[in-house]
Amino acid sequence: xxxxxxxxxxxxxxxxxxxxxxxxxxxxxxxxxxxxxxxxxxxxxxxxxxxxxxxxxxxxxxxxxxxxxxxxxxxxxxxxxxxxxxxxxxxxxxxxxxxxxxxxxxxxxxxxxxxxxxxxxxxxxxxxxxxxxxxxxxxxxxxxxxxxxxxxxxxxxxxxxxxxxxxxxxxxxxxxxxxxxxxxxxxxxxxxxxxxxxxxxxxxxxxxxxxxxxxxxxxxxxxxxxxxxxxxxxxxxxxxxxxxxxxxxxxxxxxxxxxxxxxxxxxxxxxxxxxxxxxxxxxxxxxxxxxxxxxxxxxxxxxxxxxxxxxxxxxxxxxxxxxxxxxxxxxxxxxxxxxxxxxxxxxxxxxxxxxxx
Length: 357
Hints:
Blueprint: H1 2-8, H2 11-14, H3 18-25, H4 29-33, E1 41-44, E2 50-53, E3 63-68, E4 74-80, E5 83-86, H5 87-94, H6 102-108, H7 111-124, E6 130-131, E7 137-138, E8 148-152, H8 156-161, E9 171-174, E10 180-181, E11 186-187, E12 198-199, E13 202-208, E14 211-213, H9 217-220, E15 224-231, E16 234-235, H10 236-240, E17 256-257, E18 262-264, H11 265-268, E19 275-280, E20 283-289, H12 297-307, E21 315-317, E22 341-346, E23 350-356
Parallel strand pairs: 8-21, 10-17, 11-23
Antiparallel strand pairs: 1-2, 2-14, 3-4, 3-7, 3-18, 4-5, 5-6, 8-9, 12-16, 13-15, 13-21, 15-18, 19-20, 19-22, 22-23
Helix pairs in contact: 5-7
């Protein structure tokens, strides 16, 4: 208990982001401290491009998660070394407004509301709003993003292992919201007559924090709020044996687990140099680095934004490295099945666990 009490009284911990937010907003900080969302800001991009809306750069070095409550409600949490702050519970106890979810926070640009709740929780020594992380059930970080954009064949060694030429531009497809799943979820596989060639694809997930239209590569990372560990779970028979329908092979229910954390861009730094791994039932299957990207994060965002706008809380799956089952010789392919345990890990972002049934 003393550890949590010290934590609650620590300006360096529970005060995270308050000073940074005040400095960034300046004269508007007083209103923000009372709970008003940061108003839309705009910054000119290179050439004809612009990225509008709440600036992603206002997020400090922070790690967020989603808490699933009894009855299925999912709310925003802030992760600290000594526990998780339930933002919704703390805001209710304090009588302060706050976004209920990560998606709401990103769309409204309301990080300063969260920062105000953190600061008030510290000042009030509101220990009941801080819970041990091992006591929570993780919710979905995303349940209703405007877009789930996916990039195929985006690691050089992966393209080589499946015998595909290096693409000249990013290969794009999509998933739908029904596929989103939380850390710790159980993915219920369809009957064998629907599909049975199931494969893992650990991927870096990019989370958009401000509207991006025709953004240059130089400006692209300014549109990123943060990153997550994700898995583009796939049914290869549906993807490749029904006329090349990538979307249907990748968007069955629960086929897009994400988590356990959203880590802000300020904490991650360079997204193009992160170790990435997959374990299946304890065995290493994928081990690579995002430095093997064919199209790095900046190039992907710039390319997509030339075709359609990316908006706050949109998410981008950036492709998977070598080591997938599809890349093995046909006689060595043992497709995933019920009971398998999948673990996806990306440096600085945490480890995503899910199981199959």
